[in-house]
Amino acid sequence: MRRVVLGLAMAATLGSHALAQTVAITPPIAPLLATADPAAGEAYAKKVCAQCHSLNDGGKAIIGPNLYGVVGGPHAHMAGFNYSAALKAKQGLWTYDELFAWLTKPDAYAPGTRMAFPGIKNEKLRLDIIAYLRTLSHDPAPLPTPEVKAPDVDQTATARNAP
Ligand code: HEC
User: Fold this and answer.
1) Ligand 1: does its nearest atom lie under 6 Å from the Cβ of 54?
2) 90-101 average pLDDT score
3) How far is CA 103 from CA 58, 66, 100, 145, 154, in A?
4) Which of 77, 81, 130, 136 is surrounded by the fewest CB atoms within 10 Å?
5) Dist CA 58 CA 66 (whole Å)
6) CA-to-CA distance for 53 and 45, rounded, in angstroms?
7) Which of 114, 117, 132, 136 is the pocket-test mutation for ligand 1 (most atoms within 8 Å of CB)?
8) What's the pLDDT at 21?
9) Ligand 1 center–CA 65 separation, angstroms
10) Do 14 and 91 touch, CB atoms closer than 8 A?
11) What is the Cα–Cα distance from 32 to 17, expressed in whole angstroms?
């Protein structure tokens, strides 16, 4: 269910305004990412993800590919790494939403993946890790801004709150 909803959120990010109503009920990843704690994500990544992934610029593949620059990069982003067909078949970029889905349950996101990792159940930790992965770049991708307004906003309430 959640994956379906995330798919819709992605479609909306890609510009489908028709889905705006549906998107209003999705997990609000943009504001959540804004409050995520990259330091907590880093601590976890260095303990767990780093068993299989180097995190530094130009780092070598271990069991998995180097993760520097993965946020906003293409799927299967490391040149020369022997990715599974499942991951190579994924189109498009690693957006925040895609990473959120991937790290929830890798083998549900990409059935047949070689990443032998069950996923991270804790949503806050998942966001912390994504916020950390974002920093692994010379030019970190901008944080997403909430594009979708809450439906049926009371105009008078908005006016009252105006400065
Ligand atoms: C047991 C080893 C292992 C662990 C632990 C692991 N990974 Fe992976 N990871 C892999 C492998 C192998 C792949 C390549 C998967 C494929 O080709 O299907 C991968 C792929 C990825 C990718 C896709 C990279 C790309 O270039 O498209 C991301 C992102 C990723 N891992 C993030 C993480 C994060 C974040 C963690 C920690 C929460 C983690 N991984 C933990 C082995 C691991």
Assistant:
1) no
2) 93
3) 23, 16, 5, 21, 37
4) 81
5) 7
6) 9
7) 117
8) 37
9) 7
10) no
11) 22
Residues whose CB is less than 8 angstroms from the CB of residue 24 and which lie 6 or more positions away in sequence, other chains included? 148, 150, 151
Q: Is 134 in the pocket of ligand 1 (CB under 6 A)?
A: no
Q: Is the pLDDT of residue 14 over 80?
A: no
The whole-number pLDDT of residue 145 equals 73
* Amino acid at residue number 110: A
Residues in the chain: 163
Res. 71 pLDDT band, cuts 50 70 90: very high
Residue 86's CB is within 10 A of a number of other CB atoms, namely: 18
Q: What angle do CA 115, 87, 10 make, to 5 degrees?
A: 110
- Closest alpha carbon to 111 in 94, 90, 96: 90
Poorest-pLDDT segment among 42-46, 125-129, 139-143, 159-163: 159-163
